[in-house]
What we know:
Order of helices and strands: EHEHEHEEHEEEEEEHHH
CATH architecture of the largest domain: Alpha-Beta Complex
Strand content: 15-25%
Distance between the termini: 66 Å
CATH superfamily of the largest domain: Spore Coat Polysaccharide Biosynthesis Protein SpsA, Chain A
Number of strands: 11
CATH topology of the largest domain: Spore Coat Polysaccharide Biosynthesis Protein SpsA, Chain A
CATH class of the largest domain: Alpha Beta
Shape: globular
Amino acid sequence: MSSRKSLSVVMIAKNEAELLPDCLRSVAWADEIIMLDSGSQDDSIAIAESMGAKVFTHTDWQGFGKQRQLAQKHASHDYILMIDADERVTPELRQSIEQVLTAPGNGTVYSCARRSLFLGRFMRHSGWYPDRVNRLYANYRYCYNDDLVHESLNIDGANVVALSGDLLHLTCRDFFAFQRKQLRYAEEWANQRHQAGKRCGYLSILTHTFGAFCKTWLLRAGFLDGKQGLLLAVVNAQYTFNKYAALWALGRNYSEK
C-alpha cells in the first residue's frame, strides 16, 4: 500500500490581514503552508507567521501567473493546493483532498467547485457556481501560466477529476473594493492583449458588453439569484465594457503616435 502523499498549501497575498486568519485555519491540517507576499503594509506577514505559515517576499510584481509560479517554487511537498486569502476550504473539500493524497491518480489534476459570495449571498447560478477551478495537482509536474490576470494552471493534457465539497470564495464583501479590483483586472487584461497585438473596434465594445449581461442574466440563469443576480449581470457587463473600452483606447493611442 502506498503511503499518503504530502501537501503544500500555496498562496500569494498582499494586505490581506482581515482575511488571512480564517483562510489559514481552514488549511491548518496541511503539511506546510507557503505564502508569497508582494509587499504588504498591514499585519499580513505577522499573522501568517504566527499561524505557522512559511512566508516569503517578492515585490517585483510581474502578474498573477508568474507570482504563483514563484510561490510554488518554495513548496517542498508532493502535492500543491493553490488558494487565495479570500477562500476557505470546507470540511467536505478537505475530506476529498485527504482521499486523493491517500491514493492519487497518475497524471491527474483535481478541480474544486467554488461557491462565491456576492453582496451577502452565496451565488448558485449566474455562472458563479460551481465555477470549477483546477487547484490540487502534483508539484514539480504542473504550474501556472504567465498570464498577468485570470491566470490558469497548465495541465498539459492531464485528466481532470472533480473533488466533492466546496471552496468558499468571499469574492465581494465590500462593493467599492470589488469594483476597484475589477477595474484593475480590466486594465491588466487590456494591457496584456494590447501587448500581444490585439485590437478591437468600437462596435465590439458594445456587443461584448450587451453579451456579458445577457449571458449572466439569461443564459446562466442569474435571475434565479434574485437581486444579487441582476446586480451581478450589470457588474459583469460593466467589467466587460471596461476591458474592451480600454483595449480600444490603447489601440487608438497606438495608431495616432
